[in-house]
Amino acid sequence: MILWRDGKFLPSGAMVSADDRGYLLGDGAFETILVKDGAPAFLAPHIARLNDGLSVLAFEQPIDHADVIAVTRELAARNAIAGAAALRLTITRSGGPRGLAPPRQNTCEHRMITLAPLSPSPDAALTLALSDCVRAGGAATSSFKCIGAYGEHVAAKIFAQRRLADDAVMVNPFGRVAGCTAANLFVLDGARLLTPPPAEGALPGVTRAVVIEEARAAGVAVEEIPIAPQMLEGRRLLVTNSLIGVRLAQLGAPRADAAGDELARAVQSAYRYRLEREFDKAGGK
What we know:
Strand order of the largest sheet: 9-8-7-14-13-10-11-12
CATH class of the largest domain: Alpha Beta
Number of strands: 14
């Protein structure tokens, strides 16, 4: 696989500097973006969230949309990737003495973009396991994808694997639902969608925002409220992120009739339609 790093196209085995603070301390941020035929979807909100995160970490150089678009198309061509793909944009820095404090000068900010083929998501509902792994709302790094903040997410994923579940539900410090390891969570409550707000630990996800917007435009009530774990039991759920889109889920083994939920199908259909419009727009650039 060919990747892009700091302006150069390199083989995937390219070495990371021994003083890279992203490798040593998790000092950096990333975005994962769905790509189709070399065109990234919803790039503007992804880059906005990334740049907000870089500002929190006092990185000096924001990411430019045009650069990402050009590199993505070139990576798709060099790696002969057609159709759906997962783009990973990672920003770290190096330089300065050891320790936590970022160097005041002689800092080198590193940018890396990788692109990998993406298999279609199956239609089967996901199984979720309720973990006690914590994702804290209100933390400085909770509003973006900070590399150093993902240790708890990895632990939650291991928890799910050991229970033969597809993913784990993470909670906030008060024991209420925050989301999944790499996805936002919605509860189907009659004709309503319920989802925890960012203050409860939910990542302000790009797909989450699109789902909320499209659902409300269709007249579906969406409420951002604190959600106790008990509210997940026996209910149909939706998990959302950029790569899987909108997937049905259930705490424990899915019910046989879960795939027939009318509201879930309507939300999934609205999201797919919006995504296709986004790709049509992105492909025309």
